[in-house]
Structure formats: structure tokens, C-alpha cells
Design goal:
single chain, about 170 residues, mainly alpha, 3-stranded antiparallel β-sheet, 4 helices
């Protein structure tokens, strides 16, 4: 005959996927996590803004054949050129600073720094790899960095508040 056994109660979770009896571990102290969060937030907004500017520049370039220039001389009239759009082919501005190319370069390097901020926060929070991919997509999908930043910022704050002893390493 089989002896009756008490039913095993499933562990309660605290909303972050961790069992309430299990101590949450971070990869750094609370100050390090908050520093990484602030760095990530600033870079998310800067990269998202530059991405929107890049999208506007790409539309101007490929839909209308225009580059954004600052300074130089107008290619057809010979008059000084201030700031604005000019034809890409044939060159509408001679000797001016091509802001369209500058936007491309600045966004590219800013995205590299954004990826470093993603990795720093991800490693300190000890999140699954999928979250790193979602954070990285924020720099290449327009408007996504704003939404992802808000979601992950709230998640980090909730995890720090729910586990006040976890980030104390030293």
C-alpha cells in the first residue's frame, strides 16, 4: 500500500522570477548598480535621440537627395551658404561641413558606448542573455530605446527595493 504524502507546495515568487526564500544576488553593490542604471538611462536617451535624427537624415538623403550642410559656398550661385539642405549630386555646397555624415559617425560611436552601458547594467543585474539583446535593439529600432529604458529602469528599482540585502557585497 502507498503511504499518503503531503502535497508539495510550490514556492511563491516575488514577481521577478525568484523564489521568496532565495536571496537575490547582484554582480555589484547598490551604488554600482545605480551608477550603471544612470549611465544606461543617459545613453538610452542620447542614442535614441541620435537615432531619430539619423532616420530624418536618411529620409532627406534617399527620398529627396539632400544633405545637411553648415557653411561653405553654394555650388551654383557662388554665394555663402549658412545652414540647410543642399543637393547631394551634383554637389550643392562646396567647402562646407557635411552634417549628414557627422550624424552618421556620432550615432555609430554613441551606439558603441550605449552597448557598453547595456553590458555593464546587464552583468551587474545578472539577467538572462535575452534582456541584453532587447537592450541592444533599443539603439537600432527607432523609439524602442525610450520604452526599453523605462521598463528596465522600473525593473531595476523594483529588484533593488525587493532585495535590500542582496547588493551588499563588502
Amino acid at each position: 500500500m502507498i503511504e499518503p504524502q503531503p502535497a508539495v507546495q510550490p514556492q511563491q515568487t516575488n514577481g521577478t522570477g525568484n523564489a521568496t526564500g532565495k536571496k537575490r544576488r547582484f554582480g555589484g553593490t547598490e551604488a554600482q548598480v545605480r551608477s550603471a542604471l544612470k549611465f544606461y538611462k543617459v545613453l538610452a536617451y542620447l542614442t535614441g535621440g541620435m537615432l531619430l535624427l539619423l532616420c530624418a537624415e536618411m529620409i532627406a538623403r534617399y527620398a529627396f537627395g539632400q544633405y545637411l550642410f553648415a557653411g561653405g559656398t553654394h555650388g551654383l550661385t557662388g554665394e555663402p551658404f549658412g545652414l540647410g539642405f543642399a543637393d547631394a549630386e551634383p554637389p550643392g555646397v562646396i567647402g562646407g561641413f557635411n552634417l549628414s555624415i557627422a550624424i552618421l559617425i556620432v550615432h555609430g560611436w554613441m551606439y558603441v558606448v550605449y552597448l557598453m552601458s547595456n553590458f555593464r547594467l546587464w552583468s551587474l543585474m545578472r539577467w538572462p542573455f535575452v534582456k541584453l539583446i532587447v537592450m541592444a535593439l533599443g539603439g537600432v529600432v527607432p523609439f524602442l530605446s525610450f520604452f526599453v529604458e523605462k521598463k528596465f529602469h522600473a525593473e531595476v528599482e523594483a529588484e533593488l527595493a525587493a532585495n535590500p540585502q542582496a547588493p551588499q557585497r563588502y
